[in-house]
Design a protein that fits this description.
The protein is α/β, with parallel strands linked by helices. The protein has ten helices and twelve strands. The chain has two domains: about 120 residues, Aspartate Aminotransferase, domain 1, CATH 3.90.1150.10; about 220 residues, Type I PLP-dependent aspartate aminotransferase-like (Major domain) (Aspartate Aminotransferase, domain 2), CATH 3.40.640. β2, α4 and β3 form a beta-alpha-beta unit.
């Protein structure tokens, strides 16, 4: 029996080796992991992997992680680094239980910023959240409201390539907390943590690690809120209890067994950033990549940045639209067949575009090489 032809076959286009980037990984998470980080993990493996997370070897690595975060983000006095298993998705549930007292406000301008709002909407013990929405490719702004005790901001919307400046909204109620989802921003975009009470993220993007871990830099006010809710008697599942996470983090451990590889890779990336100049070094690399990629798109006859306002174009995740005469998915397929991977558009956005990571581990020279490869594929597609 003759097999049915493939519905959308990959065009037979070969990209010359001379045009290709040295590393062809441009995914928005999991992201490129530096070879040096893998080598460091292998070197430490005999005394680190397969050991108890309650013993000194792993606890020392967790301490290195917390200290490196404090250094990278110039942690203000009194702020503490908490961590736990499950990634940002699990932390949203934990924040519903352990940091939102009554009502929250959410800025929704893409897929991931909408998910936290959905969590609070479904929580039966919280009041109806206030949701400020804007169209994909734009940024929502906070609206000060009485009775809101938790403002949920997003530093970088991974699905659309929109980045925002982080600042406390003017005129919010005394004691209201500001929390920032920095999952794809932390370590690649500049931020002043004095402007928020919880800056939280997972390490599989700018921190060039695997997923499955959440990390949060929390202010004294956020820590006080965690304790007050815990003391109120609200039932909280122990695995997502922020008071439990705080207690364990102070001991340089997690409540339940973490992925040791994830912690080690995150430490390697953070220490690489810190040893080369800190957050300014990392964000500077992202700036150079963004200048190359957006400059190329603006000059291209067939491509254009999806985010129209240059002030909110992300420097860690770029979304590039293509003319209707060019099939962006065909470009991604050809790139993948040539070893250049994960440039596909975000599936739920449904646009004819590429989505390209520009995280600190990605060399700006490789971003430039990628643009040459795209030009070659577009020309070959005819």
């Amino acid at each position: 029996m003759t097999p049915a032809p493939e519905a959308n076959p990959v065009p037979d286009i070969t990209i010359p080796d001379a045009l290709k980037p040295r590393d062809g990984r441009f995914g928005c998470g999991p992201s490129k992991v530096r070879a040096e980080a893998i080598d460091a993990l292998v070197a430490d493996a005999p005394t680190y992997l397969g050991t108890s997370h309650r013993q000194s070897t792993v606890k020392f690595m967790v301490a290195r992680l917390r200290n490196a975060i404090a250094e990278c983000f110039s942690l203000p006095d009194g702020y503490e680094v908490l961590l736990g298993n499950g990634g940002t998705t699990v932390l949203w549930d934990a924040l519903c239980f352990g940091m939102i007292e009554s009502r929250s406000q959410h800025l929704v301008f893409g897929e991931f910023s909408s998910k936290f709002a959905e969590c609070t909407t479904k929580a039966p013990f919280l009041g109806e959240p206030s949701v400020q929405r804007s169209d994909p490719g734009t940024a929502a702004t906070p609206h000060t409201e009485d009775g809101i005790d938790f403002y949920a901001l997003t530093h970088n919307e991974t699905s659309t390539g929109v980045a925002t400046m982080i600042a406390r909204p003017d005129g919010i109620d005394a004691g209201a907390l500001v929390a920032v989802d920095a999952t794809s921003a932390a370590g690649g975009l500049r931020v002043d943590l004095n402007e928020c009470d919880a800056y939280y993220f997972a390490p599989q993007k700018c921190l060039a690690s695997d997923g499955g871990l959440w990390i949060a830099a929390c202010s004294p006010a956020a820590i006080e809120r965690i304790g007050r809710i815990e003391a109120s008697g609200r039932w909280i599942p122990t695995s997502i209890d922020l008071a439990t996470a705080l207690d364990n983090s102070r001991k340089d451990q997690t409540y339940n067994t973490p992925a040791l590889t994830t912690i080690h890779l995150a430490v390697s990336q953070l220490e690489w950033i810190n040893n080369n100049g800190g957050l300014e070094f990392a964000s500077g690399r992202c700036d150079r990549s963004a200048e190359v990629l957006y400059g190329w798109a603006e000059a291209s006859p067939v491509a254009t940045p999806f985010v129209a306002d240059p002030e909110i174009r992300s420097h860690v995740v770029a979304t590039i639209d293509f003319d209707e005469t060019i099939d962006a998915s065909a470009i991604s397929k050809v790139l993948r067949a040539n070893g250049i991977v994960d440039t596909e558009a975000y599936r739920k956005l449904g646009r004819n575009q590429l989505r390209i990571a520009m995280f600190p581990a990605i060399d700006p020279d490789d971003i430039e090489a990628l643009t040459h490869c795209i030009d070659h594929v577009v020309a070959a597609l005819g």
